């Protein structure tokens, strides 16, 4: 039987000047003599390794049963030097199944770039709130703001909840969060800017605006489009009764008092 790799490995680029890099996934299929293809990515007989672990290392994601190609990170920095073209290095993959190796049939090269950046081109707050866009809960309740982003690699590179999908990047490295309101006192605030967590304090007589704006990269990054990227959601803050005999007055959702 013959082993083939059915995958497209793109250059691994820095993600919007965060110091973190894209990750690739390798899918390995075995082709039987009948022509049938079988996914053997998670098989114990499958082998995927890197020729240069200082540029790319291969790890096994046991939960999802695929291999991730991860640029080796030392704290926030990349291990390796940067060439004139911005490429920090490249590595070839050894791929095989049940002792049959692909190297004499197909060579897969992974290139890692520092200066060619995968930049944000769209930022959208898509947090789900209660009825009438109400942030409702007892005093001290928290909520994570959900951000949908698109990168300039291609139209398909969209993350509907970037914090839960790009788990190796803190959402606060991509966007800045802010809260504004005409209310003279703080009714809600950003309690964790790294993860986009907001904390409820009290009722709001006026709408509160949550906003997320793309972090502006260094001016040396020629493809930075982040300056004008921002999104907002208007929300009512409505505190419900907690313990110790508290009483909840007014509307349950929306503005406390009409």
**Rg calc:** 24 Å
Q: How far apart are the first and last residues' alpha carbons, in Å?
A: 73 Å
Strand coverage percent: 35-45%
Give the low-pLDDT segments: 74-86, 219-226
What is the helix fraction of residues, given as a range? under 10%
Element-by-element helix/strand order = EEEEEEEEEEEEEEEEEEHEEEEE
Tell how many strands the DSSP assignment holds: 23
Give the biggest sheet: 5 strands, mixed
Please state the average pLDDT score. Answer: 77
- How would you describe the shape? elongated
Alpha-beta content class: mainly beta
DSSP summary: helix tally: 1
Brief digest:
This protein is an all-beta fold. The protein is built from one helix and 23 strands.
Name a few traits of the molecule.
four-stranded mixed beta sheet, 23 strands, 2% helix, 258 residues, mainly beta, elongated
List the helices and strands and how they pair.
Layout lengths: L1 E4 L6 E4 L8 E3 L1 E4 L5 E3 L6 E5 L5 E6 L4 E6 L1 E2 L2 E2 L8 E11 L2 E2 L6 E11 L1 E6 L8 E4 L4 E3 L2 E5 L6 E2 L2 H4 L9 E7 L6 E5 L4 E4 L7 E7 L15 E10 L19
Parallel strand pairs: 2-13, 15-23
Antiparallel strand pairs: 1-4, 3-8, 4-5, 6-11, 7-8, 9-10, 11-12, 11-13, 14-17, 16-21, 17-18, 19-22, 20-21, 22-23
């Amino acid at each position: 039987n013959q082993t083939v790799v059915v995958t497209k490995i793109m250059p691994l680029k820095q993600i919007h000047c965060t110091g973190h890099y894209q990750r690739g996934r390798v899918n390995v299929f075995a082709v039987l003599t009948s022509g049938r293809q079988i996914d053997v990515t998670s098989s114990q007989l499958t082998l995927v390794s890197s020729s240069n672990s200082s540029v790319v290392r291969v790890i096994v994601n046991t939960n999802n049963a695929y291999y991730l190609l991860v640029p080796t990170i030392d704290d926030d920095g990349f291990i390796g030097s940067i060439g004139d073209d911005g490429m920090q290095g490249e590595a070839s993959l050894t791929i095989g199944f049940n002792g049959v190796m692909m190297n004499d049939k197909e060579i897969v090269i992974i290139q890692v770039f520092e200066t060619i950046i995968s930049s944000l081109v769209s930022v959208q707050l898509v947090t789900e709130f209660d009825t009438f866009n109400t942030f409702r809960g007892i005093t001290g309740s928290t909520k994570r703001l959900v951000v949908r982003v698109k990168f300039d690699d291609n139209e398909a590179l969209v993350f509907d909840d970037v914090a839960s999908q790009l788990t190796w990047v803190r959402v606060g490295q991509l966007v800045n969060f802010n809260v504004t309101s005409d209310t003279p006192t703080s009714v809600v605030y950003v309690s964790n800017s790294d993860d986009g967590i907001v904390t409820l304090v009290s009722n709001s007589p006026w709408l509160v605006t949550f906003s997320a704006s793309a972090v502006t990269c260094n001016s040396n990054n020629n493809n930075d489009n982040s300056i004008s990227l921002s999104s907002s959601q208007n929300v009512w803050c409505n505190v419900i009764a907690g313990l110790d005999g508290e009483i909840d007055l007014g509307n349950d959702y929306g503005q406390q008092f009409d």
